[in-house]
Each structure stands twice: as structure tokens, then as C-alpha cells.
């Protein structure tokens, strides 16, 4: 592992129910204001809840992805001359239309046709980020664009309702006593990742460094996480070792925190395995409590939230909290006054099939 | 980017079907669609060919890549029809509506704790899955990767799947590449 390139994030764009752009996300998500409201995009009369965090109207996924990619490239000052040789990696729900969507996004943004769309549920976007980072770190490419999108639709809402995964009380309460489950949320996001040398040569200021990444499988169950969190803990250890950063140096954890009873306690166990007693002082929050669960796009939205925490020093709030749960002993960010005191932050995600990812970001 | 960046050692291969009238075994908990049983069966054949019996040795760092251009179109259309008609949505569709679920079945059965990656390739699914696997192995995220390419029948084809278990080239040392 010699001559590894340092991977930086040189541009990003984000759209969610909080609005478009980082200012909207900072005002809404960081302030702890949930964006949940009754869904008007489709009929919810037969469902146990009518609530999600959606953008106005009925946006089309390919259009939103194109907008996010164009905005992220502009943020990274990545002109048309650089886009032609920049791979595009997409993440979206597994769908028979994925190829058509991928080719349309590439054609409209001037990026090469993507080799694939990542579809591994709640770790789809972070898997794409990890592959992009691996390609850059290993010198295979100078840069890559990763884009991910999920727009709440009637079929997904219905099947999550049928699986009793949605919070009937209309609130997402990660790691809290009385949590009832998740709520879905729109998100479309894009990031430009590149080698530090490439960004420097283009005279672009990096927004953050992607210091480490890790991914593992629980080898445990079709849909339940391993209760002791061992698989997720291995993913975090991998990210830390790859970055050569001690666990105690992590200043904030953006948790997966779906608000689901079993998943949250397994995640808390995983974090305790990694951080030990240090976990008592490391701030943790799940911003799914405000922007909802964006499934295949969630990891990219939460990576951007984590980068914004690093850049602003503000910590996003874990909303919906009612009371402590003994199975989730975490130092939760419960109000908007908390500040980030170190320059490294972690974002973790976990999915059906026991898939886990961890991304460690730092100051550029 | 669709081709592996270097040679991989092929440790085992399997396909389904191997005979015209072959029946696909069911998998408990998966309903309506052949997609998950197809993936489970071809994965089982491939892993059994290499490992013999479960669990996999040193499975902690064996990854799985499931590549399917069209994905589980049967589950998707069943769900869409239930919603359109206003009938009850079968709860079991919840977890099988994403491809991770059957991968979780395979990894739990064989003790595979490496990365789980699911994709919709825009080109040849097996070739792209092998490219993803090569990156995982070269970057030290996995010592072996099970690549499954699976497609449900359309108007011109029948259900079909192929699985390949790959590892690094025999001469290549993994020393210094392990991120555990």
C-alpha cells in the first residue's frame, strides 16, 4: 500500500424535504426541525400512517439526479472538459428502469455512461462512495462523481407499511425509549470525490477529506441486524485503520439510527465495541429523525450532513427523543447548541442482509 | 471500467439451470418471485463446490456481489399491482423488495462476513460484478468474493443465473492489504 492517493471531497449538492442546498439542510436538519408532513404525492388512506418527508410535487428521479450532479460539479468547479473522463457511480432502488435512468443522467451531464447503479438498500450510496474512493486511492482514476436518489413513492410506502416498519405515531425517535420505527424521506445528492493532487492541480479547495471507509456483512439474517453489532463494529474498525486514526480522535458520529427498536440497539452495541468508554463523550445523532430515511440515497445525504458538521462546527440534532433507553446508552445531540470539538467525524449505515458501511471524514 | 483490472483466480463456478426441466428449490420466507430462490440456489452450488459443507472457512472476509440488470421484476410488479388494485400488500414482500435480503440468506448460511454489494449493471452483469469484486480484493476489503449474476425470464429468455467464487491471483500476496 504505497503511494496511496489522499481522497478529498471537492464539491457536493443536496436536495431533501428541507429544500435544496446546504443552507436549507443547515437550517432544517441541524436545527432539529423534522420535515415530516402528510403525504400528498399518492393516496395513503389504506396505510397505518400518512407521514413522510417529501419535496413539493412529484419530482422525477432522473431530472433530480441531473440537477444534483450539475450542482455538485459546479460546486467542485468541474467543467465539461474534466467531466468526460470522470466516472459516474449512481445509487438508487433496484428497478428495471435503472439502466435507462443511468444513461439519461450521463447523457445530460456530460459524464461517461455509468457502469452500474448500486442497489444495496440503505448502504447503496455509501458502497458507491467506497468504490469511488478505492479507485481514486489506488490511482485508477483522478476523480469520480457519486450521485444517489430516492423519492418516496406509493409502492415503497405501501410495502414498508405492510412490513410494519413505519412509525405509526408520525415521529422518528432514534435511540429513544418509545421509538416506533422509521419514516421515509426524499433525498437526491451528489458528491465529487478526487485525489488531493487532482484538486490542487485544478486549484480547487477541498471541502473535506475522506480518510477511511469500511464495509462488512453480519452473516446473520435476511433482514435483522446482528444484535451485538459485531459486523458494523468491524466496518468502523476498517475505516479507522485505513485512515490510521485512533477511535478516540472521532469527534462526532452520524448514526444510522432508523428509529427501529432492534436496529438502534444493535448499532449502539456496535459503537460501544469500537469506542468503549470514549463513547460516553462522543456526540452521536441520527438525522433520519429530521430528514427521514432516504433508503438507497440515505448514506450520501448523511455523508453531506457529516461534512457540514465538520465545516461549520455545528452538530445536528437527534430529534424526537422522549427518554433514555438502557439498550442505547449514547451521548445523543439533543439540542442545537452542541459544537464539534475535533476535526474527524464518522457516518455509519446498515442495511437488510446485514450489510454495513462506515465512512470517516476529516478536515481537508 | 467493466473489465476486471487484473486477473482473478476462479475458485469455483456454478450456473442455473443446468438442464431444461430443472426445478428451482424454494427458500423459506421468500414468496411469489423466482429471483431470490434463483440467487440462493446458484450461490449454494458455487459455494458448495469450493467449500464442501457450510460454513465457509475464514468467511469473515468473503464478500458477495449480486449483479442483476433488471432485478426482481416479479416482486416489483406484484407489489405495484397490489397497490394499484387496493388489495392487501403481502408483508413478506417488504424484505424481498430489495436484493440484500437474499444475500443475507446466503451470508448467514455460509458465514460470509465480507462486503455486501448489489448492483444493476448497465452492461454485462457478470463482467461488471467481477470488476467490483476485483476492486474489493485489490483494495484489501475481501480475500474472496462470490459474484452472482441473475436475471428473471423475459419474453425471450428463461430464468438464469451464474455464480463465480474468485480470489486473488495465486502468486499475489495479500500481506499489507488487510483492513480488518
Overall pLDDT of chain B: 91
Helix and strand run of chain B: EHEHHHEHEE
CATH fold call of chain B: Peroxisomal Thiolase, Chain A, domain 1
Q: Largest sheet of chain A, described in full? A: 12 strands, mixed
User: How many runs of DSSP E, i.e. beta strands of chain B?
Assistant: 5
Write down the domain tally of chain A.
Answer: 2
**CATH superfamily name of the largest domain in chain A?**
Thiolase/Chalcone synthase
Protein name (chain B): Beta-ketoacyl synthase-like N-terminal domain-containing protein
InterPro entries (chain B): Ketoacyl_synth_N, Thiolase-like
GO molecular function (chain B): acyltransferase activity
Domain Beta-ketoacyl synthase-like N-terminal (chain B): 59-154
What's the helix and strand layout?
The complex is a heterodimer of chains A (about 375) and B (about 180).
Chain A: E1 7-16, E2 19-20, H1 22-28, E3 37-38, E4 51-52, H2 61-75, H3 80-83, E5 88-91, H4 98-109, E6 116-118, H5 124-137, E7 143-150, H6 154-162, E8 187-195, H7 196-201, E9 208-217, H8 230-243, E10 252-254, H9 261-275, E11 283-285, H10 288-291, H11 298-312, E12 331-332, E13 344-351, E14 355-362
Chain B: E1 9-16, H1 35-51, E2 62-67, H2 73-85, H3 93-96, H4 100-110, E3 116-121, H5 125-138, E4 144-151, E5 160-167
Parallel strand pairs in B: 2-3, 2-4
Antiparallel strand pairs in B: 1-5, 4-5
Give structural attributes.
heterodimer; A: 364 residues; alpha/beta; Peroxisomal Thiolase, Chain A, domain 1; two-stranded antiparallel sheet; 11 helices; 32% helix; B: 180 residues; 5 helices
Task: Write up what this structure looks like.
The complex is a heterodimer of chains A (364) and B (180). Chain A has eleven helices and 14 strands. With 364 residues, chain A is of the alpha/beta class. Chain A has two domains: 186 residues, Thiolase/Chalcone synthase (Peroxisomal Thiolase, Chain A, domain 1); 152 residues, Peroxisomal Thiolase, Chain A, domain 1, CATH 3.40.47.10. In chain A, strands 1, 2, 5, 6, 7, 8, 9, 10, 11, 12, 13 and 14 form a twelve-stranded mixed beta sheet that branches. A two-stranded antiparallel sheet of chain A has the order 3-4. In chain A, helix 4 links the parallel strand 5 and strand 6. In chain A, helix 2 runs parallel beside helix 4, helix 5 crosses helix 11 and helix 8 crosses helix 9. Chain A starts with 6 loop residues before the first strand and ends with a strand. With 180 residues, chain B is an alpha/beta fold. Chain B has a single domain, classed as Peroxisomal Thiolase, Chain A, domain 1, CATH 3.40.47.10. Chain B is 33% helix and 20% strand. Chain B is built from five helices and five strands, in the order βαβαααβαββ. Chain B has a five-stranded mixed beta sheet with strand order 1-5-4-2-3, with helices on both faces. In chain B, a hairpin with an 8-residue loop joins strand 4 and strand 5. The longest helix of chain B has 17 residues. Chain B is globular. The chains are: A alpha/beta (364), B alpha/beta (180). Chains A and B meet through helix 4, strand 6, helix 5, helix 6 and strand 9 of A and strand 2, helix 2, helix 3, helix 4 and strand 3 of B.
